């Protein structure tokens, strides 16, 4: 329209920025001993909802290399509803935390 409104881009509007949303995220429960402190798993999700494989980062990584490899391998398999900006799908970062009790 021709009004003075923001077109729904405000925090409550339909065109606001929306982060990616996991569709099949199952957090690992095997990380009992290797995850002594929470590990943030960061992934870059493209505009189609796929994880860009070489984007995966662990912060901080575990001291156990096999744990790191498994976290990265599993993170690459997840599928997301892509982030949206102005109502259109866009690429964006997403993270989740893994703790010694399993998922976080």
Topology overview:
Elements: E1 21-22, E2 39-45, E3 57-59, H1 65-77, E4 80-81, E5 83-85, E6 88-90, E7 92-99, E8 102-103
Antiparallel strand pairs: 1-4, 2-3, 2-7, 5-6, 7-8
What can you tell me about this protein's structure?
12% of the residues lie in helices and 29% in strands. By secondary structure, the chain is of the alpha+beta class. The chain has one domain. The strands form three sheets. The protein has a four-stranded antiparallel beta sheet with strand order 3-2-7-8, with helices on one face. Strands 1-4 form a two-stranded antiparallel sheet. The longest helix has 13 residues. The model has no long low-confidence stretch (mean pLDDT 82).
Short recap of the structure:
The protein has 104 residues and is an alpha+beta fold. It has one helix at 65-77; strands spanning 21-22, 39-45, 57-59, 80-81, 83-85, 88-90, 92-99, 102-103. A hairpin with a 2-residue loop joins β7 (92-99) and β8.
């Amino acid at each position: 329209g021709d009004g003075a409104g923001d077109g729904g881009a405000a925090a409550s509007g339909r065109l606001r920025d929306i982060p990616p949303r996991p569709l099949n995220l199952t957090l690992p429960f095997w990380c009992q001993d290797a995850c002594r402190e929470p590990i943030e798993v960061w992934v870059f999700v493209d505009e189609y909802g796929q994880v860009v494989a070489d984007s995966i980062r662990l912060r901080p990584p575990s001291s156990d290399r096999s744990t790191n490899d498994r976290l990265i391998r599993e993170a690459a398999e997840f599928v997301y509803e892509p982030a949206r900006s102005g109502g259109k799908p866009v690429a964006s970062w997403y993270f989740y935390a893994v703790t010694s009790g399993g998922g976080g």
